[in-house]
Each structure stands twice: as C-alpha cells, then as structure tokens.
Fold these 3 entries.
Entry 1:
Amino acid sequence: MTDAAELRRRTAELLAAHPPAGTDRLDFLKARFDAGLAWVHYPEGLGGLGAPRSLQAVVDAELEAAGAPDNDPRRIGIGLGMAAPTILQYGTEEQKRRFLRPLWTGEEVWCQLFSEPGAGSDLAALGTRAVREDGGDWVVDGQKVWTSSAHVARWAILIARTDPDVPKHRGITYFVCDMTDPGVEVRPLRQITGEAEFNEVFLTGVRIPDAHRLGEVGDGWRVAQTTLNNERVAIGGMRLPREGGMIGPAARTWRERPELRTHDLHQRLLKLWVEAEVSRLTAERLRQQLVAGQPGPEGAGMKLAFARLNQEISGLEVELLGEEGLLYDDWTMRRPEHVDFTGREAGYRYLRSKGNSIEGGTTEVLLNIVAERVLGLPTEPRTDKDVAWKDLAR
C-alpha cells in the first residue's frame, strides 16, 4: 500500500536523480511520469502507482517546494481533465500507452470535437458522420464549433454519428482524431473579448483508423458521459486557494481603492466572498469524493456555481471601478494557447465570464441534469426518445 511516506521517498529519489535546476524541463516531466508521480491514482506504467487520489497533493507539495517545473496544466487542460480519464476508462492498453505520457507532459495538446452548429445543448443530435470502409478506416465528414485550443492541438476527442437509423443517443461512436490530417481545417472564432481561443473545425474526408476508436461502435454517448462529467469538474471544481479565481481581483481592488467604496457595494462583495469560499470548499469535498471513482452528475452543480459567481463578481468589480470599469485595454485579435478566466483587467474578466454559462454545458442543460440525476425529479417529456436520428426534424 503506497502511503504518504512512500510517496515522499519516491519524490526525493526523483529529485536526486533529476535535479530541477540542472534538468531540461521536458526531461524532468518524462521522468516524473515514468516514476508514477504524474497522477498517483493512475495504474503503474501509466503515470501512477495505483495510490489513493488524495495523495497527489503530497507529491505536488514536495515538487513545488523543490522548484520543479509543472506541466502547464492550463495549456493542456482539455487533455488532462477530459481526454485522459476517458482514455483510461475506455482505451485499449495500446491506446493508453501511446497517448497518456505525451498528453501529461504537454508534448501533445488535445482539443474536444463535440459541439456542432446544430447540436450544442442537444449534443446527442449531432450530425457529423463517420462511415466505415470495408471493415477498416472510418471516414469522417462534418463541422464542429466552439473548439478550444484546436489551433494548437495535435489530437482531438471526437464523437460522430455512425448509425442514423437508430435513436440519436444510440448511433454515436467515440474516436481519437489526428488534427494534422489534411482533411481537418481550423478557423478562428473571434469572441467578444477580441481574442479567438475558440475555433470552428471542418472535417472533410478525415480518415480515422479503427484502432483510434474508444469504446464499442454505437456506444459513444456512454463514453462521452465520462468526458462530460470530468469536464464539469475540471471547470467548476478546480483547486483554488482562498480568494483564488474571480473573487481575488475584486477583493484586491476593494482593499487598494478605498475611495471607490460604498455601503451597498460592501454588502454585495461580502455576500459574494462568502459564496465563493463556500463554492471553493464544496469543490474540495467533491474532489475528495472522487477518490472512490469517476465523477458523477454532481459536477454539474459546481459548474453552475462557477458560472454564476464569475459573472456576478466580475459585474460587481466593473461597477466598483465606475468609469474605469468601462475601459478596455486591448482589442487585438489573438489566438491564445490557454483559457484565462481572470487574466488581464476588469473589462476582460467581465466579458470573458459571459461564456462561462455556455462552455462545458449551458446553464439550462446543467439545471436539468441536477434536477433529474441529482435530485431525482421527474424527467422532461422527450418525444424524440425512440425516433431514429434520420427521421428527426431539423
């Protein structure tokens, strides 16, 4: 049984063999993965030691104290938070060994090809087609949208329709798509912030070997639920220190600019500060529950709280700053390599937070998930449940 003392010993051995000050960053990350200290709850040989998930913090603290480099988790968040747990649960041994190591070290960035122009909130209605040729490769044609990091990604997790003759949830298959394929075209989507961290992706005759399929043919919706549940936890349940996230800049402005204060703003800031702290502690409890297995629908509640708080806090900060809050520092078109919810100044934070209630599942969809799958309330009537996808009105 691997305990905290054993992990500290292994971490000390890693640091002795690969001193951070004199070791290339990528070489250190590879050595950390091979030592089983990347994500300790993963199996041996796949970056872990089969240890309790809660012990990851022991390793992280030791490495941080030693000045060891991290793997830039914001840049590779989709790979870490969504692709990796799905590959671990549904991938073959060959797939796990091929993809997990360069995913964790950041050598290969991942993106997520799920949403489509006509299938966002109703994701199961997606129309991107994958047709198999004589029992061999799959040929994929379609369009995806709101794809973060597609412009820097090497691989994508992709769901496509492989059987239009069955109801929409049953005719979907899950693939790993090579973003360097000549049939993949990535176009930027400029956002209200001026940046283009999102993209639209056009797939034309993209060939995917059957060896890059995750799960069984037609079982893609079940596989996708693993991805989506992990996505909500990755967005709404991220580990933060006190006053981490959006509440930090607002509280800092309040402390540093006493001339801006009013009684009403003070009361509102106190309320949001308490709610942010409650959300942070709830996220910590949720992560502890994950020790027992994969995340469930409870992550939807965290994602809901994350979006609401970000929007309310950033709005309060803009109001606190008065005329200054209406300024915007730079509208230059950029294609950033990672999402930064709290970077730059107050105007950016306010505008960027508007997307929080859309990305990772819209607020309306997540409310349904909480109502039906967490609280056990009656489900909404679904007239398309037993209708073949090809017969749905579009």
Entry 2:
Amino acid sequence: MTDAAELTHRTAELLAAHPPATTDRADFLKARFDAGLAWVHYPEGLGGLGAPRTLQAVVDAELEAAGAPDNDPRRIGIGLGMAAPTILRYGTEEQKQRFLRPLWTGDEVWCQLFSEPGAGSDLAALGTRAVREDEHWVVNGQKVWTSSAHLARWAILIARTDPDVPKHAGITYFICDMTDPGVEVRPLRQITGEAEFNEVFLTDVRIPDSRRLGEVGDGWRVAQTTLNNERVAIGGMRLPREGGMIGPVSKTWRERPELRTHDLHQRLLKLWVEAEVARLTGERLRQQLTVGQPGPEGAGMKLAFARLNQEISGLEVELLGEAGLLYDEWTMRRPELVDFTGREAGYRYLRAKGNSIEGGTSEVLLNIVAERVLGLPAEPRTDKDVAWKDLAR
C-alpha cells in the first residue's frame, strides 16, 4: 500500500523532472496527474494511486513548499467537487479516461444543469425531456441558476426520459457538450449586480448515448452522488481559523475599536465560536470521506454554512454603520468565481442571501437532516406513486 514516505518520494521525483520555476504551468499539471498525484485516492491511471485520501495532504504540502502551481480549484470547483466523483463512480472506462484529466488540469470547465424554473426545491419534478433516437438522445427544456455556464465546455445534466412513471424513477443522467447546437446560455443578473448565474435553454440538443452516466431511468440515484458531494464542497471546504466570512469582521473589530458596542461584542463572540465549531466539524466530515462516499451529513454542513454567512455578513454591515452601506461596483459583470473575502462588506451581505438557495435550499436540507440523519418520520408525499405526467403543474 502506498504510504506517506512513498508519496513524498514520488512528489520529489515529479519536482525533479518538472521544476516548477522552469516548467509551463499546464505541462506541470498534466505531469502531476499522470504521476498519480492529482487526487491520490483515485485509481492508478486516473490521477491517483489508490492511496488513502488523507495522504493527499502530504503531496499538497510538498508541492506548496516547492512553489508548484495548483489547478485553480475555485475556478473549476463544479468539475472537481461534483462531476469528477460522479464520473468516477458511474462512468464507463472510456468516460473516465476522456474526462477526468482535462477536468482536473482545468483545461475544461464544467457546469451543472439540474435546477429548472419549476423544479428547484423539488428537483425530481424536472421537465426537461430527453427522447431516444437510435444512438442519440434529443433534449429539450430549460435549466436555471447555472453557475459558470458561460465558461463551461461540459455540463452534468439530468433529464426526464420516461414521463409515465413516478417522478424519481423516470430521470436519466447525461454529460452535455455546451458547444453543441441548440445550447443557449443567457445571463441572470443578481442582487449583487453580477451575472454569476445563467439560464440555459436546450433546443433539440443531440447527446450520444455514449455520454449517458448510469442506466436509463436511474438518474436520480446517480444525481444523489453529485448532490451529496456538492453540499460537502459548499459547506465543508477546508479553512484556517478565522477563514471565510468571520475573518473580515474579526479584523474590523480589532482595528476599529470606536465601532464596538457591548451588544455587537456578544453577538460577534457567539458567531466566532459557531464558525470555529463549523470549521472543525467540516474537518471531521472530510476525514469521514476517507472511508466512503459522502452521505446526508453534508446537508447539515451546508445548512450551517448558509446561516452563518448570512448572520456574520449582517453583523459586519451593522458594525460598519453608514460605511457598511457603500458598494464599490454595480456594473454588470460575468465573474469566473465568487470572491467573498476580496470584496467589501456590502457585497458579502448581498451575496450571502444566495447561500440558503444554491446547492439545495435550507428548507429542503432541513428535511434531509431530519429524515436521513436524525431518522425522524418522513413528511407525507402524496405524489410518490403518481406518474410524472399526471402531476399538477
């Protein structure tokens, strides 16, 4: 079994053969993937060595100390955190070989075509249709709240392939080429002024059956792998102490004593403790991932992430007083990533409003935690055995 010493040796060999100071960034990333040091817990030949997931930190520390480039994970987070684990679990060998390397190196950006205007919180009610024509599927429908669609080459897509069965049973999972004819991306301007999200219209888009993930009609089960990983990626990201939203407000508190009040002090202490508890809980959740796939516990982390971000950003605006109402830039932009800590308090306050919607609404996640973590009785679902075509819409 590959151990820490072996990984240290392999990393040293990579650095010797491809010195970061003189090697092109793209070439270094490809060499790292081919050496099995991209994600060490993946199988050999797919960027890994079949090593324990915890040993990734050994590689990352050695490469960081040597000044090696990373793959800009924030820019390609959907591919890394959602598409890759789903392809690894359900993809064919051909799909794994085709998609995982350019996904990890960042040569190909991914987006997620799940939510629809009439199927957000109730995702299984989606109406985008995929109809089989020989060796292709013809897809028609509309998706919404699609991050990075304006940058993406590929998308993970779920569509209805059988309207005559209950809603969860008639869904199939596909990989969609965003450059194909019939794919139209339109910006959605947000309360922040940016168009970070998009609408995507699919008109007679032809997807080869070879780009189907999983069995026909089994798309809901495949999608659960994506969604569980998404919630861990959003709510369980690795942070240092005072990382994330709590950092800027703590810094302001220390540097601006004239803004302090007793009430704000008590509220900040409470949120600081909660943020630290959430950070440590996220670390424990990541350690649990070393022994299997993410489970519903990620929903709890996502819930905490959304609530804390909104409460902390609200406190920061209140602490700053009039200055907290200032906003630096309202020009319509289409950013490549969300930068919570690189902008001012007003941006953080407005952007945090979306945290309780994206990646699963807080209301839906509360149900998941209640039913699948705590084991409480499920809510009545009168549509569970009704064919999708017969549902009221």
Entry 3:
Amino acid sequence: MGIREDAKEIIDASIASALPDNAVKKALKKLPACDGKIYLVAIGKAAWQMTKAAVDELGDKITDGVCITKYDHVKDQIDGIRCFEAGHPVLDENSVSATKEAEKLVSGLSKDDFVIFLVSGGGSALFEDPKVSLSELQDINKQLLSSGAGITEINTIRKRLSNVKGGRFAKMCEPATVFSIILSDIIGDPLDMIASGPAYPDSATTEDAIGIIEKYSLKVAGDVKALLTEETPKELSNVTTIVTGSVKQLCASASIKAKELGYEPIVLTACLDCEAKAAGQFISAIAREHSKDGKKLAYIMGGETVVKLTGKGLGGRNQELALACAEGIGGLKNVCAFSIGSDGTDGPTDAAGGIVDGYTSNALLAKGITISDVLANNDSYNALKLVDGLVITGPTGTNVNDVAVLLIGV
C-alpha cells in the first residue's frame, strides 16, 4: 500500500470516529423526566446526523422538531421533523425563514416543556433572525470572512446583530427548559462561541465587538454600530449544556489509525490557529528535516486556520494549507500530507480539503502553474483539481474542526 492510500485510510477513520450518533444518544440518557412536551431544534452542518440520532433514541416522545443544515446535507426525511437547508458560510433567505420556523416552535411553551437543542458548527450562518437587513448582514459576514478574523471574533459581531444568537434563543424558550447538546468546532470549546451561542450566556462585551470592527477596518452603517453597543444576555437559568465531541477526538483517531498502519504518531497540536499558508509551510519544514530519518512518522495537527483573501480564486483553508505544504516538500519521494475539514466541506467548494506529495509541485509546473501564483490568487481548488489533489468525501454528518496530517515513509 502506498503512502497516499495510507493517508486516505487515516481520513476515513478520523471522520468515522467523529460522527455524533453515539455521543448524542449517550447525552440524551441524561435528559430528565419530562411532564410536558419535548420539542427538538437542530442547527449546523451536523444537524441532520444529530437529529437522526436523537429521533432513533427518543422516537415519538418528540412532539415536533426543526432541523436546519447546509445545502445537500439532508440525507433523507426524518419522521416528525421538518428539515430545512440554507446558506453556509454566508447566510441567505432560507437561513432566516427556517430560523423563524424554529422560533414559532418554541413560542408559548410551558415550564414543564423541554427543548432539545442540537448544536454544531456552521450554526452561525444557518440559524439567523437578523436585527439588520439580510443584505447588510451578508455584507458584514463577507467582510469578516475575508479579513482574516478568527471564528471567535466573527461570532462576537454576529451575536450582537441577531435575535437568536448570544443566548437570545434560550430566552425565547423560557419558561421551558433547554437541553443543549453541542458538537464543538472551536478550539477550547468556548460554549458561547459555538454557532454564536444561541443558548449560552455571552462572555464577550460590547467593547470587544467595537474593537473587532476597528481592528479589521470593517465598513458598517450607523445602525450596526448602535446594535454593537447593546449588551447580550449574561445569565441563563433554563439551560443544561453537554459537549459531545471536539477536535482532540479527531486528532486522537488520526493518531490511532496512523499507528495501526505502522507510523509513529506525533500530535503537534489540537489548537492550530494561524494562517493556512503558514501552517502548510511549517509542516513542510518538518518533512524536510525528518524525511531521511529512516522511520515512518505521522505528524498530526488539529484546529482551524484562516485565509486572508488576496485574490479572486476558488478554494478553502484546508486546500490552501495542503498546497502551501506541497511547495516545501517538492522532490521528496516518501512524503504525503493532507488537510481536511471534518464536515466534508472546505470553503465554498465541494472538497473536504487537499492532499499533496513530493510530486505535486512538479506536476503543476509541467502545466505552467507555479504554487506561489496560485496561493496569491487563493485558487487552490482549481490547481489541486488538475493534479488529483482534492479530497472529496461529501457531507460527513459531523463537524469538529479540521485535521492535517504529514506522513513520512521509509
């Protein structure tokens, strides 16, 4: 078996282990006895998979439910649940209309009722009832996503422009109890930032929000600036929260599979948080240093990088990381690297990420393409597509950040 095939086995094993099915069912066993009705609201890129697990566990105990996920992520209809698809990473009209259905579902509940709230990454775009016009919010989101701002900074702004984020959805559910099960996609599992914390008290302040606008020189109207000065809920008394998964699990699974395949696994970090190109350059430097050690090594990193847009190409952070690595490992015969999003999507593309080896850069050069030019134009998708460098998994049903693995053979 070649080193690329080893990489694909690690990809498959990592994603399979991160599926939320068993974790959701285990969490639901902690659901207290309910004298009222049980409703379900699920949001995020893993919403369908989490909903299916919950319905398999609870069946007709669920009175009604709404599931909101990304386009092409609803695998089938689920009995008793209304499934909606909407825009991600930039929200659209369907995000708003589906969210309003969830708001209707939880209006007028009693203190004996329960709302099972299933949350996964991507919920910030998919679950939204904006305080400003949709076009204005879309513009702000696009500015944030292209500025190089981190997910925590982005969500700090989103919360103040929303009727459901920053704990406000939980307030809508009062006096019912919210039982929130979270699949974490943010480093360190900050519960108020995952999907912008619809059912968790907000730790960020108005000063934080204004500082982010100034830091990235974002262009916002006066009504937006006024909303940034309105504080979000700091206390919630009707919510129980359980975290079911994180990027640490993703890295651990990659490590276990790599070891099974004969590699010595080395987890460098589960808190990767830098520009994608820098991360790719870093692991390529490791490859150059250790490619002649005479043993099989697997260097593993998990987290979420960022891309600062300088061009108009097509790609995502994982593809950009992989391509930046390819530039540094050119000519190495026993090296392969990949970077993928665990949800199966990377940026506005149909790829989960990218996979490269010591031949990738020369293969592109043979087509008259230099990696530096591709990276300057942020066009990693089209470049990797030319050299069989895209990882295509389709929607996976989970979302616990990204994992990048450098494999060194013998």
